[in-house]
Amino acid sequence: MNIYQAPVVNALRSLHSRPEGLTSAEAEHRLHDFGPNQVERLQGKPLWMQFLGEFTHFFAVILWVASALAFLADWSEPGQGMGMLGWAIIGVIVINSVFSFVQVYRAEKALSALERLLPHQVRVVRNGVFERRPAADLVPGDVIALEAGDLAPADCRVIEAFSLRVNNATITGESVPLVREAAPCSCGDALHGTNVVLAGTTIVSGDARAVVFATGMQTEFGKIAHLTQMTGEVRFPLQGEIAFISRVVGVLSVVLGGVFFVIGRVIGVPFWTNFVFAIGLIAANVPEGLLPEVTLSLAIAAQRMARRNVLIRHLPAVETLGSATVICTDKTGTLTANRMHAAAVVLGGERHEMAVPDASPSWGGGFAVSSKSRGYARISRPP
Description:
The chain has 383 residues and is α+β, with helices and mostly antiparallel strands. The protein has helices spanning 8-14, 24-34, 47-53, 58-76, 82-107, 110-115, 169-172, 220-228, 237-266, 271-285, 290-306, 317-322; strands at residues 121-126, 129-134, 143-147, 155-167, 178-180, 196-197, 202-214, 341-347, 350-353, 363-370, 375-381. The protein folds into three domains: 3-39 and 118-227, Distorted Sandwich (Calcium-transporting ATPase, cytoplasmic transduction domain A); 47-110 and 233-322, Calcium-transporting ATPase, transmembrane domain (Up-down Bundle), CATH 1.20.1110; 332-381, no CATH class. It contains twelve helices and eleven strands. It is elongated and about 100 Å long.
C-alpha cells in the first residue's frame, strides 16, 4: 500500500518514524544512505569540451581548411592578400563559436533556476524538539513543520493539518490552491494525493506537520530536474540543411579548384601562380559569412524569447519552434500566471463589465457563483 493510502500511524511505521521525529543518530545514518536532499547535477561534458566542440563541427572544419589554404597561398606568393583572407576566416570561426557557446552556457543555468525553487532552511523535529536545519539535511522519516508562505523542501505525507492549502503550480501547473488533510486517500499516485505535499510547492494558508517520504532526486521535483538534464543530442532540420549545403559547397569548391588547376597546367601557367589561383578559387566559393549570419540570427531570436521567459537550450531549436503549426497543451493553468480577475458580473439579470488590466488580457477560466447576490462572475486567467 502506498504511503498516502495508509492511515497516519501506518505511514509513520512504514518509514520507521514516529510523531516526535528521528534522533540525530538515525538522521545521520539515513543521510549517509539516501544522500543530501538537493537537486543533483548529472555528469556531462565539461564546459571546456563544449567550447572546443564549437570549433570542430563540419562547417567549421571546412572554414579551417579554407583558412589553411589561404595561408599556404600567402606563403608561396606573398602580397596577394591571401593572408588577410585567412585571418578573416579564422575571425569568423571564433566569433561564431563564442556566440554559440555563450547561448549553451546560459541554457545550462536552467538547473540553477530550479534549485532556487527549494528552501534552504526547514523546521524539523530532531530528538523530539523542533529545530531549524538546512533543507539538504532532510531524510525520509523526518517530521517537519509547514506554515503559510513556506516552500515544501521534500515530498511529504501530511500527518496533521489545520486549514492547509497548497499551490501545486510548480509541479502540475494547477493554479487553484488545493486542500490538504491528514486522512488517507484512494488516489493512485502522489501527484493527486490529498494528503501529500510535494517538493517545490508553496503553502498558501494554514499549517501542518508532515513526514518526509522522498528527498532529493527521488521527489517529483527531482524527477523534473533530471529530465531537464537528459536532453540528448538532437539533429534539428536547420542543422541538417546547413550540413548538406556545406558538403555540396565543399565538394564543388574542391572540384572547381582542381579543374582550373589542371587547365592552368595545360595552358602553361607557372605552378605557384596556378596553385595560388586554385586555392583562391576554393576559398572564394566557401560562404564564410553563412555561419555567423545564421548563428547571429538565431541568437537574436533566442534573446528575444529569453526576455519572455522562454529558455532555448540549443540555438537551432529556434528555427524548429518557428516552424510549428500546431501547439497542444493539457490545460490553460499550465500557461497562465496563477492570477485571476473578474471579467464580468451579472446582478439581477444585468451584466456589468469589469475593467481588465491592459497587461493581462483575459482568456480561459470558469464561473464563480454568489448565492447572496443571485448573480455570477466570469473569472478569467491572464496569460
